[in-house]
TrEMBL record:
CDD domains: RX-CC_like (cd14798)
Domain Disease resistance N-terminal as annotated: residue spans: 13-92
SUPFAM superfamilies per UniProt: L domain-like, P-loop containing nucleoside triphosphate hydrolases
The keyword Repeat appears for this protein: yes
PANTHER family referenced in this protein's UniProt entry, alphabetically: DISEASE RESISTANCE PROTEIN RP (PTHR23155), DISEASE RESISTANCE PROTEIN RPM1 (PTHR23155:SF1205)
Domain NB-ARC residues, every copy: 175-346
Superkingdom to which the source organism belongs: Eukaryota
GO molecular function, one term: ADP binding
Protein name: Uncharacterized protein
InterPro entries per UniProt: Apaf_helical, Disease_R_plants, LRR_dom_sf, LRR_R13L4/SHOC2-like, NB-ARC, P-loop_NTPase, RX-like_CC, Rx_N
Length: 918
């Protein structure tokens, strides 16, 4: 079971907090110190106990005991948080410090005594659990449940190829042919081909179809199919390889391989395969360490040998070892064909009845193109009464069906393997997706901040917690467990999601482990203490008469009853995460100041316009998200938030004629430079406040900085501050007026890792330091009034992928020289009133994929040289003159041959689609 794995985060937090209190809080009373020391030793035993349970199988007794231990660990975590609130204070030395300590102990004696009593109670409960364990004589090792569980998992994980025999008839031809081509043709050097995809997508089915293909069989001297179990030893794997080759040739196998050591087995395989053309399929490899061992036994005599590996983990091999073939879920059309073939096989022609088509397509969409899920769900529905009511019930209760229906159990087993293989620290991170609604794209940076606020992220020397968390997210993506939902045009990942079927598995796991609970239009059933709660689109008073004193995270999605709101802000002493995005509140509740454990607070897109002074009590707050609110200034109380890492406070003017600075920021008090942990600050309004511009130089950890309403006279101070921000990745600055000059020439050394730069204001010429931005990926210039010779410096930036010039260029011609813009993928030219000619020299912009031309009234024709941009896939024309558009039409457009290679050409009038020209 997974309980022990999930305890790693809570255990780590509890033990770290206890150690901190015992070593740092020297003023702890003897009773409390003694209680902590006793419990510290007890918890070490509990950790070993839960690890044994994790390895021991699915005993109901053990599950019950483990669940009880887990709840006690949670209770201990809550208690320690409460304890730290009572016992921590500022230490002072000398006589004053002595008096302070006496006064403190007198004042807090009742609280410390009460805490010590609760600790003793938890210790007694843990002791009782251990006594029951021994009373029932549960011995995990002697029972052998671990080995039985492993065998069961091994059996079930290879049921997919047999179960998916129908699936190989749909959508498999193209990938099969491509893989056969990779195996039988190509270079003579031994090549590794990694077949990568999420569980249930059909990797094993496809690999078996390719392996059994006559063209492949006849091309190799030796063949071996090797299933790789998660718990294999390298010696067992080598013995399996030897056995398969001897079985194929009907050759006797020496019994001495049973006693051979690793090096002897390697030598035996190597000698057997020498000068032979062999193919070996390793099915379901999970770790690169396996390949590092395996490759030692495989000779490369340039006979055209091939190794095919199926894996869920993208970086198991890596491109350096050969070819990576990504197997994606079926497209909608093929998924529908497979579903009908399986579900309506008893109907002539396998046609879906008209009255079931709508709900059937919804079910197919829910399966997300996974052949395993489509065949399983289709097979189940084929035996059900063919009515929309019955099928709608199946759709609504898929999570329950996965848990209880034997026909769907293997889906859960196969997809759960990925979860079971996760390192302990990633299991909590992965389960966090159970909080969000279906098809909800989770912004990556938001997810990272939430993980940090919850305490899931372990420190790593030389890296910020955000960088470590980003590595965790990339790990989940590489394991095909999380999908990229949306990326910026220039390539950076914006949001992510999980497959619908995977989400059902996550919800099931989350309920098993009491990780989180979601309320959809109904009140909760309080069968367990709720730790994390998300509420979707409910107008009922779901929190009325319900206690959530142990709640750690609360999320609201969609509208909610106003009468419930007061319950959010009282009695939540353990709350670390509070997301009220879009909630119906207009004022900042004073009661929020009582949530002293709060790390993450989002009031995004609410109607509040002012913060309460009680905000200053949230001394552990790390993220304050006020984006989309009407808060225009923050008081001195913000300076008490010494752990603040991310401050977002801005909204956009959405009128038809917004001012030049259409982003409205927030005014900050003097002293903001004391918030040394700040990594993101956007947007700061610096209108007539030169002092705060100077203070920014103290925020040396900043990675993203946004500034609005900058005056020309403050440019030199801003440059002096920016020079100290060596970690800066994104910088946005807007002048106070379209005619106000952005004076940025005083920056002598630009931040070395700057990736995104947004300059809004008059420049006339680009600052000299622009040429040093070797890491710059995205650049947007607005109102710059640049001259014709100003753009030359941009062409040499080695990593620039997106360039937008909006009212930024006053010249008549833009000329892109040879080899200019080597990595540019997106070019956006907007409102360039004087531009009448764009020239792209052969070899420039070789990687350009998308071009946008908007409201350039003097431009009469497409850029000269556009025909050579062979990678250009999309051309968007917005508010362009009729003569420009006419020349590109298919029916006689004089410049049509220049753009014939572009797949998508569209014409818009003020963002409203007008005409398809492609």
């Amino acid at each position: 079971m997974a309980a022990a794995g999930l305890e790693s985060v809570s255990f780590r937090y509890v033990l770290d907090q206890m150690d901190s209190m015992l070593t740092e809080e020297v003023h702890l009373l003897g009773q409390l110190r003694s209680s902590l020391q006793d419990l510290r030793g007890e918890l070490d035993s509990m950790r070993s106990f839960l690890r044994d349970v994790d390895a021991g199988g699915e005993s109901n007794v053990m599950r019950t005991l483990a669940d009880q231990v887990r709840e006690l660990i949670y209770d201990m975590e809550d208690l320690l948080d409460d304890s730290l609130h009572h016992v921590r204070h500022t230490h002072r030395h000398g006589f004053v410090g002595y008096l302070q300590k006496i006064f403190y102990n007198i004042k807090h004696f009742p609280a410390q005594h009460q805490i010590a009593t609760k600790i003793q109670d938890i210790k007694a409960q843990l002791h009782s659990i251990m006594m029951r364990r021994h009373r029932y004589s549960i011995n995990l090792t002697d029972e052998g449940s671990s080995s039985r569980g492993a065998k069961g998992r091994l059996h079930n994980r290879h049921v997919a190829p047999r179960f998916l025999k129908e699936a190989e008839l749909v959508g498999i031809n193209k990938p099969r042919e491509e893989l056969v081509e990779l195996l039988v043709n190509g270079k003579q050097k031994m090549t590794v081909i990694s077949l990568v995809g999420m569980g249930g997508v059909g990797k094993t089915t496809l690999a078996r179809k390719v392996y059994d293909d006559e063209r492949v069989k006849g091309c190799f001297h030796c063949h071996a199919w090797i299933p790789v179990t998660p718990s294999f030893t390298i010696e067992e794997l080598f013995k399996s390889i030897i056995s398969r080759f001897h079985e194929e040739k009907s050759e006797p196998l020496s019994r001495r391989i049973d006693v051979m050591e690793r090096d002897q087995l390697i030598e035996m395989i190597f000698d057997y395969l020498r000068d032979k053309r062999y193919i070996i399929v390793f099915d379901d490899v999970w770790h690169i360490s396996a390949w590092n061992e395996i490759k030692l036994a495989l000779p490369d005599d340039e006979c055209g040998s091939r190794v095919l590996v199926t894996t869920r983990i993208r970086d198991t091999m890596g491109e350096s070892y050969g070819h990576v073939y990504n197997l994606d879920p079926l497209p909608q059309s093929e998924a529908w064909l497979l579903f009908c073939k399986k579900t309506f096989h008893s109907i002539s022609g396998g046609v879906c009845p008209l009255e079931l088509e709508g709900i059937s397509r919804d079910i197919v969409e829910l399966c997300g193109g996974l052949p395993l899920a489509i065949v399983a769900v289709g097979g189940l529905l084929s035996n059900k009464e063919k009515t929309s009511i019955e099928w709608k019930k199946m759709q609504d209760n898929l999570n329950t069906e996965l848990a209880k229906n034997e026909n769907l159990e293997h889906i859960k087993i196969i997809l759960s393997l990925s979860y079971d293989d996760l390192p302990e620290v990633l299991k909590y991170c992965f389960l966090y997706f159970s909080i969000f609604p279906r098809n909800y794209p989770v912004t990556c940076i938001t997810l990272i901040r939430l993980w940090i606020a919850e305490g899931f992220i372990e420190g790593d020397s030389g890296k910020t917690m955000e960088e470590v968390a980003e590595g965790y997210l990339n790990n989940l993506i590489d394991r095909s467990m999380v999908q990229v939902a949306e990326s910026y045009d220039y390539g950076r990942m914006r949001s992510c999601r999980v497959h619908d079927i995977i989400r059902e598995i996550i919800i099931s796991k989350s309920e098993e482990e009491n990780f989180s609970k979601s309320l959809v239009k109904h009140k909760p059933r309080m069968c367990k203490t709720i730790r994390r709660l998300s509420i979707y689109n409910t107008k009922e008073d779901v929190l009325q008469d319900t206690s959530f004193s142990h709640l750690r995270a609360l999320f609201i999605f969609g509208p909610m009853s106003k009468t419930s709101m007061h319950k959010f802000f009282s009695g939540f002493k353990s709350l670390r995460v509070l997301s009220l995005e879009g909630a119906p509140i207009k004022t900042f509740p004073v009661e929020l100041g009582n949530l002293f454990q709060l790390r993450y607070l989002s009031m995004r897109n609410t109607k509040i316009n002012k913060l309460s002074k009680s905000l200053g009590k949230l001394k552990y707050l790390e993220t304050l998200d006020l984006k989309g609110t009407y808060v225009s200034s923050l008081s001195q109380k913000i300076l008490k938030l010494q752990h603040l890492r991310h401050l977002l406070a801005y909204h956009y003017n959405t009128g038809r004629d917004p001012p030049f600075y259409y982003t409205y920021g927030v005014k900050l008090p003097k002293g903001i430079g004391a918030l040394k942990d700040l990594q993101k600050l956007s947007y700061l309004e610096v209108n007539k406040d030169s002092a705060i511009v100077k203070e920014l130089g103290n925020l040396v950890q900043l990675k993203r900085l946004g500034i609005v309403k900058l005056r020309e006279k403050d440019g030199s101070n801003l440059c002096a501050s920016i020079e100290k921000m060596e970690q800066l990745r994104s910088f946005s600055v807007t002048s106070i007026d379209i005619n106000e000059h952005l004076d940025l020439k005083h920056l002598t050394s630009a931040p070395p890792f700057l990736q995104r730069l947004y300059l809004r204001g008059c420049l006339q010429s680009l600052p000299h330091w622009i040429s040093s931005l070797q890491s710059l990926v995205r650049m947007r210039l607005r109102g710059s009034q640049l001259r014709e010779d100003s753009l030359e410096v941009l062409q040499g930036l080695p990593n620039l992928a997106e360039l937008a010039l909006i009212q930024a260029f006053d010249g008549a011609e833009i000329c892109c020289g040879q080899q200019g813009f080597p990595k540019l993928k997106i070019l956006d030219l907007e409102q360039l009133d004087s531009l009448d000619r764009v020239l792209i020299v052969d070899g420039a912009m070789a990687d350009l994929r998308k071009m946008i031309i908007r409201n350039c009234k003097q431009l009469q024709r497409v850029p000269l040289g556009i025909r050579q941009l062979t990678n250009l896939k999309e051309l968007l024309l917005i508010e362009m003159p009729d003569v420009f558009v006419r020349r590109l039409r298919k029916d006689g457009g004089t410049e049509r041959p220049e753009v014939e290679h572009i797949q998508k050409i569209q014409c818009y009038d003020n963002d409203k689609f007008v005409e398809e020209l492609s």
